[in-house]
């Protein structure tokens, strides 16, 4: 094993140990009513939004949450795509005919392509959808936009949120397309593409649970942070605003 691989393995082990300790402490504090306000504040800080505690409290610091958070961290740490490097031309499924397509098929010339990764069971993704739609309307003359539907962030058979979209882990491409089509019917303002069951786009871009990218000339020119904390629409708007100024 190369040194870099050994270092990555050691680094991931250390992160998992720290994460496990944090979860044990959180589960202990959760038992005491006096700490509930602090825990809700901490969760909202980490999630980057203000979700009602009834959505997540039941499984807060539970096994499902630990597995979900660790999976997201692992996906981010092992992503293949880097800022200013060549974009990965992910194989995807088009909802129009459930046929094969690729991400860069939707890039037009030198126009930036904004890519919004997510799924319907991520309440932050759904909550921010209106902002994304407004962004599309504002910048549609200078940029193109797509949504890439990836594996569910909070499937009903995993770390499920209450009062949330009830979608289980996808067991087939058809099931993933059905979930994506429901999103597309509600948000028809841009193409909704579907990651393959090999999760090629998710793995390459470190997309789970949500993430934003901008691709131009087949290179990554903006790489948003890992969601939910790094999922920032304002950063994308600022980039597009600066780009629009350069174009004029």
Tell me what you see in this structure.
The protein is an alpha/beta fold and 248 residues long. Helices cover 44% and strands 14% of the residues. It is built from nine helices and seven strands. It has helices at residues 3-29, 36-47, 53-56, 63-77, 123-127, 129-139, 173-186, 200-205, 233-247; strands at residues 91-94, 100-102, 113-118, 144-149, 192-195, 211-216, 219-223. A seven-stranded mixed beta sheet has the order 2-1-5-4-3-6-7. Helix 1 (3-29) runs antiparallel to helix 4 (63-77). The termini are far apart.
Mind sketching the topology for me?
Blueprint: H1 3-29, H2 36-47, H3 53-56, H4 63-77, E1 91-94, E2 100-102, E3 113-118, H5 123-127, H6 129-139, E4 144-149, H7 173-186, E5 192-195, H8 200-205, E6 211-216, E7 219-223, H9 233-247
Parallel strand pairs: 3-4, 4-5
Antiparallel strand pairs: 1-2, 1-5, 3-6, 6-7
Helix pairs in contact: 1-4, 6-9
Short description:
The chain has 248 residues and is an alpha/beta fold. Helix content is 44%, strand content 14%.
Detail the poorly predicted runs.
none
- Helix content class: 40-55%
- First-residue to last-residue Cα separation: 51 Å
Strand order of the largest sheet: 2-1-5-4-3-6-7
Beta-strand percent range: 5-15%
- The H-and-E topology, N to C, reads as HHHHEEEHHEHEHEEH
Largest sheet entry: 7 strands, mixed
Count of helical regions: 9
Question: What would you report as the Rg, rounded to the nearest angstrom?
Answer: 19 Å
The chain-level mean pLDDT equals 92
Computed structural class: alpha/beta
**Any idea what the shape is?**
globular
Give the strand tally.
7
